[in-house]
Write a structure and sequence with these properties.
mainly alpha, single chain, 10 helices, three-stranded mixed β-sheet, globular, Rhopdopsin 7-helix transmembrane proteins
């Protein structure tokens, strides 16, 4: 730990323009509430429904939970800050935000991988599906995802806590993340940036490649299926794939490059910290008949 003369930071936010700030308040408040509502509906529907008991819905439950939490690490702060002139965040709050954002972001990545694995087993090894994806194994996989996320975010926070801050304390971002913090540190951050890229960047890249490969294998094995089976599998995989691209594109852009920050970074971050958690429930529910039917039963009382 370094002696910091800086005890608080000022977040620059998305813009300094007062008119735009009012718009940001309105737009992001609505987006955030929709995110919470959408993910809450999925979580409650899966918990209450008798029909959504399969591994796919078990993982979808955790994806929605991680989405709601991930959005909560950045959105409320952005919304409240858009109303205040000085967007002050204490050093401890800043470090907590780094930890939480990486924890739930990483959780989301691991759950997306588990969902792809589940589809792979269902489509490529249908006879062994119930044994491979038993409740016990699914439970263990989720525990591994929690532990993996914890290791990742702990590594990030250790790097962040090692940074000494002694001068400027304005973070050119709307939340605390390692990239903008590295710019403020009064030390040579080359090595730390390499570690950030090899940690966050590698997780993003490797996960993305693993997911892409799994979908290629799934699509290849679909050629032997009936037309109806192919259509159903394609529909599920397409929605998964859309989510994967929306989430990983921005992540790879932010975390796999030298320590430069671009003006577009903030908009890209908005996309995956606020956009993805909102889109996930929409993509999964609108494309999944079983979830839609279960929701109708529970929320509208239609049998």
């Amino acid at each position: 730990m370094h002696n910091n003369s800086v005890t608080e930071f000022i977040l620059f936010g998305l813009t300094r323009d007062p008119e735009k700030q009012k718009a940001i308040f309105g737009v992001f408040l609505i987006l955030y509430l929709m995110t919470l509502l959408g993910n809450f509906l999925i979580v409650v529907t899966i918990k209450m429904s008798q029909t959504l008991g399969g591994p796919m819905f078990f993982f979808l439950f955790y994806l929605s939970f991680a989405d709601a939490c991930f959005s909560t690490t950045t959105a409320p702060r952005l919304i409240l800050d858009s109303l205040s002139q000085k967007k002050i965040i204490t050093y401890n709050e800043c470090m907590t935000q780094v930890f939480a954002a990486h924890f739930f972001g990483c959780m989301e990545i691991f759950v997306l991988i588990l969902m792809a694995f589940d589809r792979y087993v269902a489509i490529c090894k249908p006879l062994r599906y119930t044994t491979v994806m038993s409740q016990r194994i699914c439970g263990l996989l989720i525990i591994l995802a929690w532990v993996g996320s914890c290791i990742h975010s702990t590594a990030q926070i250790i790097l962040a806590l090692r940074l000494p801050f002694c001068g400027p304390n304005i973070i050119d971002h709307y939340f605390c993340d390692l990239q903008p913090l590295l710019k403020l540190a009064c030390m040579d951050t080359y090595v730390i940036n390499l570690l950030v890229v090899s940690n966050s960047g590698a997780i993003c890249m490797v996960s993305f490649i693993v997911l892409l490969m799994s979908y290629v294998v799934i699509l290849y094995s679909l050629r032997n299926h009936s037309v109806e089976g192919r259509r159903k599998a394609l529909s599920t995989c397409t929605s998964h794939f859309i989510v994967v691209v929306i989430f990983f594109g921005p992540c790879i852009f932010i975390y796999t490059r030298p320590p430069t920050t671009f003006p577009i970074d903030k908009m890209v971050s908005v996309f995956y910290t606020i956009g993805t958690p909102l889109l996930n429930p929409l993509i999964y529910t609108l494309r999944n008949a079983e979830v839609k039917n279960a929701m109708k039963k529970i929320w509208c009382g239609k049998g």
